[in-house]
TrEMBL record, chain A:
<protein>
    <recommendedName>
        <fullName>Brix domain-containing protein</fullName>
    </recommendedName>
</protein>
<feature type="region of interest" description="Disordered">
    <location>
        <begin position="199"/>
        <end position="228"/>
    </location>
</feature>
<comment type="similarity">
    <text>Belongs to the BRX1 family.</text>
</comment>
<feature type="compositionally biased region" description="Basic and acidic residues">
    <location>
        <begin position="281"/>
        <end position="317"/>
    </location>
</feature>
<keyword id="KW-0690">Ribosome biogenesis</keyword>
<feature type="compositionally biased region" description="Basic and acidic residues">
    <location>
        <begin position="12"/>
        <end position="26"/>
    </location>
</feature>
<dbReference type="InterPro" id="IPR026532">
    <property type="entry name" value="BRX1"/>
</dbReference>
<feature type="region of interest" description="Disordered">
    <location>
        <begin position="1"/>
        <end position="26"/>
    </location>
</feature>
<feature type="region of interest" description="Disordered">
    <location>
        <begin position="280"/>
        <end position="317"/>
    </location>
</feature>
UniProtKB/TrEMBL annotation, chain B:
<comment type="similarity">
    <text>Belongs to the EBP2 family.</text>
</comment>
<feature type="region of interest" description="Disordered">
    <location>
        <begin position="348"/>
        <end position="439"/>
    </location>
</feature>
<feature type="compositionally biased region" description="Basic and acidic residues">
    <location>
        <begin position="26"/>
        <end position="48"/>
    </location>
</feature>
<feature type="compositionally biased region" description="Acidic residues">
    <location>
        <begin position="133"/>
        <end position="162"/>
    </location>
</feature>
<feature type="compositionally biased region" description="Acidic residues">
    <location>
        <begin position="104"/>
        <end position="121"/>
    </location>
</feature>
<dbReference type="InterPro" id="IPR008610">
    <property type="entry name" value="Ebp2"/>
</dbReference>
<keyword id="KW-0175">Coiled coil</keyword>
<feature type="compositionally biased region" description="Acidic residues">
    <location>
        <begin position="49"/>
        <end position="64"/>
    </location>
</feature>
<feature type="compositionally biased region" description="Acidic residues">
    <location>
        <begin position="78"/>
        <end position="89"/>
    </location>
</feature>
């Protein structure tokens, strides 16, 4: 009975919420990300997942998801955890990693092929940042050029951007996540912002504009007027090739498909084929030369051998 | 271009064909659509030879399908249109697959193929098409890329039909309209006028990063471009956040859990130190090696110098001798004595030669004092001092101390001597008595 009441009251409250959410939609950015992988991830995929999860204080890491075909079940799972984003690592063949970024209740879903994975640990970079500090998200200018890139940008923004006032987030900003488009792929990097003494030469050339504005906001922890920024990479690194964008969450019509993406299976098959092709060509050549020799009467196909009288086998028979 | 597409009717998808017929640019990609439109009486602007060209092209372009981007069993006549359309798309894939990065071009090709796929309801659209043809001629190629959401739904049905007909066309999709609608549905408001920067903390750089990367393969250049992008964003973000009064810098006394644990950082630092020491050691070793090499060089240099000195001295002597020989005929008598002993040569050598040579004899050995010489003669000087007192051939051959008498007289062969000595010393008792009686 209590459960029924609860659900009913919840429903009504949801309506209320929706009503005032329209008013407060501009202000409130509530994101929760369900981070999980499929079965069959390698250690590297797992570490990458952990790295990303550690950077997402608004994330909820879950156990491995069992199915690879019924991804729509992730919607329910996300709902169960009150998540409105899903970051799903799908490993195939124990080597290929596909990353799904999805906005859960009603899409879209972006599927990427992840390459060049390097986890934080294996990259011996010196950078470090607070766990759960809000990153500055840096997007390449190219993200504004194409609709599909704009969608991807928005998805990244909501998944990787830690919402303001997230529960476990820290109050300072000390890292940048950068997303760049190059070669039709999206390259993801993570840098620490380290404040250094500003060199005299560049003092006040680029921050000149906001220098006076900074003074009123001096109530901050540090004056830091004469500091410059430099970036130190933290990791992880990975490269994402967009494959497909679906309109729904793990379903719905496909609204973008990247034709330039060639599945790694195909690439491997081509490689194998090329390798096999070499052998085939060689055999062909051999056969041809044999045939030619036969035609010229040079060879009967099998090498003749004169029985030599002084053969060891004969001598010591 | 997106806005334009939004304004267009759902049937906008067919328009590009008419445009393609007008043949402004990118003819290669459009051949499929052209041929299709040729089937329809209304859109017959293209000339015949052009069409033939295009057909050839498309037949060529079906080859790249082997690289596996589009696969379809093209079989029966009923799917003629579709397969043509597909040839089109494969064309694009063949082009793009080689790997130049013109996104624009890709989109063109993609949209083309999409458009071609939905020509089921072309008949219905033809009237409209003709109407639109005139005013669309001015529009650019990007127009072709647009498709409405409404169009997408019939596409699925078509797919089923195609499957039923035994053909499966893999479409390349870039449904910009749908993408934008979807974006609108879930996008956060990041309008800088309404929303503070701290709300989203997103910076979109003004320029494309790819433009500053000469080659994607070049790691250094690429990473530099990324860092520059991020740095720009960080600067901008910091300025904006400071303006909004959001704390940015972590104070030094604020300790909290970090993303990378202390152990990891320790490891990183240890690795750094190790690298530094290795580098240092390598440099040291190299220096040592160089020094060794240099030392050898010095040695060689010295030897060469010595050889040179010697050569010079010899030359000088020869020269002098020659000169002497030449002069000798003139004043032979005067210098004969000197000539005999080459005193002049010695003088010359001594004069020109190194001062060392002159010094060393003068140092002491040559001029020993008379007293010293006498002492040396008396006590010896130099030579071996060991075994000076042990016997040698001389001493053992020296028989001056030998005395034969002494040798006979005893002290040798102890027993006889003893007897004799005892007897001589004292006779026996009876003997002594008789001796005494005799006396």
């Amino acid at each position: 009975m209590a459960a029924v009441y609860k659900s009913l009251s919840k429903g009504s409250s949801k309506e209320d919420k929706e009503a005032d959410s329209h008013a407060a939609a501009e202000r409130k950015n509530k994101q929760r990300v369900l981070v999980l992988s499929s079965r069959g991830v390698t250690y590297r995929h797992r570490h990458l997942l952990n790295d990303l999860a550690s950077m997402l204080p608004h994330g909820r890491k879950d156990a491995k998801f069992d199915s690879k075909s019924k991804l729509y079940q992730l919607n329910e799972l996300a709902e169960l955890y009150n998540c409105n984003n899903v970051l799903f690592f799908e490993a195939r063949k124990g080597k290929d990693l596909y990353m799904w970024f999805s906005k859960v209740p009603n899409g879209p879903t972006v599927k990427f092929f992840a390459q060049n994975l390097h986890t934080m640990e294996e990259l011996h970079f010196q950078g470090n940042c607070l766990k759960g500090s809000r990153p500055i998200l840096s997007f390449d200018g190219a993200f504004e050029s194409e609709p599909y890139l704009r969608v991807i940008k928005e998805v990244f923004m909501q998944i990787f951007g830690v919402p303001q006032g997230a529960r476990k987030s820290k109050p300072f900003i000390d890292h940048v996540m950068s997303f760049s488009v190059a070669d039709g792929k999206i390259w993801v990097r993570n840098y620490e912002i380290r404040e250094v003494e500003r060199a005299k030469g560049e003092a006040g050339n680029d921050d000149n504009g906001d220098e006076p504005d900074k003074k009123p906001s001096k109530g901050g922890p540090k004056g830091g007027k004469d500091t410059d920024i430099n970036l130190i990479e933290i990791g992880p690194r990975f490269v994402l090739t967009p494959i497909v964008i679906q309109e729904g969450a793990f379903g719905g019509p496909i609204i973008y498909e990247n034709k330039r993406f060639i599945s790694p299976n195909k690439i491997r098959a081509e490689l194998r084929k090329a390798k096999a092709g070499r052998h085939v060509a060689r055999m062909e050549q051999q056969r041809e030369s044999l045939a030619r020799r036969k035609q010229l009467g040079l060879d009967d196909g099998k090498p003749k051998k004169e029985p030599a009288g002084l053969d060891t086998r004969d001598l010591f028979a | 271009m997106a806005k334009k597409s939004a304004t267009q009717s759902p049937k906008a998808g067919v328009k590009p064909k008419s445009q393609a017929v007008n043949g402004t640019s990118a003819e290669k990609k459009k051949d499929g659509s052209r041929r299709k439109s040729a089937e329809q009486p209304t859109v017959e602007k293209m000339d015949v030879d052009n069409q033939e060209d295009l057909e050839e092209e498309s037949s060529e372009e079906e080859a790249p399908e082997a690289n596996g981007k589009t696969e379809e069993p093209r079989s029966d006549e009923s799917s003629d249109e579709d397969s043509e359309g597909d040839g089109d798309s494969s064309d694009a894939s063949g082009d793009e697959g080689i790997g130049h990065i013109d996104i624009e071009a890709i989109d063109d090709s993609e949209s083309e193929s999409e458009l071609d796929s939905d020509d089921e309801d072309q008949g219905a659209k033809l009237g409209k098409l003709q109407d639109n043809k005139d005013d669309e001629e001015g529009e650019d190629d990007d127009e072709e890329e647009e498709i409405d959401v409404d169009e997408l739904e019939p596409e699925d049905e078509e797919d089923e039909e195609q499957i039923a007909a035994g053909t499966r066309v893999r479409q390349t999709i870039n449904n910009k309209e749908a993408l934008l609608t979807s974006l609108r549905r879930f996008a956060l408001d990041t309008n800088p006028k309404k929303v503070p920067f701290a709300f989203h903390q997103t910076v979109v750089s003004s320029k494309r990063t790819e433009d500053s990367i000469p080659s994607v393969e070049d790691d250094l250049q690429r990473e530099l471009a990324f860092v520059n992008q991020a740095l720009e964003a960080a600067r901008q973000g910091r300025a904006l956040l400071r303006k909004e009064g959001v704390p940015f810098t972590r104070p030094t006394d604020y300790f909290a859990e970090t993303v990378r644990s202390d152990e990891t950082m320790q490891k990183v630092r240890a690795k750094l130190v190790e690298e530094a020491t290795a580098k240092k050691a390598a440099a040291e070793a190299r220096k040592q090696r160089d020094l060794k090499k240099f030392g050898k060089q010095v040695q060689v240099q010295k030897q060469l110098e010595r050889a040179k000195q010697k050569r010079e001295a010899l030359e000088k002597i020869n020269l002098l001798k020659k000169k002497r020989a030449a002069d000798g005929s003139a004043n032979l008598g005067a210098t004969e004595a000197e000539d005999l002993f080459d005193v002049a040569v010695d003088n010359e050598l001594n004069a020109s030669g190194s001062s060392k040579k002159r010094k060393s004899p003068g140092d002491g050995k040559g001029e020993r004092s008379a007293k010293r010489q006498r002492k040396d003669a008396k006590y010896g000087f130099g030579g071996k001092k060991r075994f000076s007192k042990s016997g040698d051939a001389m001493s053992s051959g020296d028989l001056s101390g030998f005395n034969a008498k002494k040798m006979k007289s005893g002290s040798f062969g102890g027993g006889g001597g003893k007897k004799k000595g005892v007897k001589a010393a004292r006779p026996g008792k009876s003997r002594r008595k008789s001796m005494a009686a005799k006396r």
